[in-house]
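Glucosamidase/peptidase M23 family protein: structure tokens wanted.
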Amino acid sequence: MENQNESLIKQYVKRRAKRRLFLWLFGTSAGLITILITVFVTLFLILAAGSIDNSDSDSSTGGEAFTGEYSEGLPIYKEIKGRGPFSDEIAQYAVGAAVKYKLLPSVILSQYGYESAFGTSLSAKNDLNFFGITWFDGCLFPKGTARGVGGIEGGWYMKFPNSKAAFSYYGYSVTRFSISE
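Answer:
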């Protein structure tokens, strides 16, 4: 008999809770506002997700897909802004190289900062070589500054024609030379 009474009490409490929730949602302005906000946020998220551009490259910004061969073109995203020691141009090149070569922009910027003292090293200023890339016979770019103080390390850095080429070649070399064939 007690189980039956407990069951009846539980059913009554559930019905009463449902009734109160229904009255709060549809009978008060707070409930209606909650429902409207939920509906609008849901619609906004659906519409925003539908407007995302998933293309790999954007020819209007000079971007091109990575084919396994070096090319200087990088997609440039003007909405990317630099912070701290990273100028807008450097941040945009890092993101462009990251998109083209499927790398992390944080890793590119970390190596930029480490190898070139955030663009202030001798090879960064003279050769636009921000990544400590060494020149070798047959490479695409000419010899630059001698490696090490007074050339004590031996060898030379590559000399890039512009910053975009340096970032593109860095992405290419990390991607191409790290793939085991």
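The CA atoms of residues 15 and 21 lie 10 Å apart. The longest strand covers residues 143-146.

Cheers.
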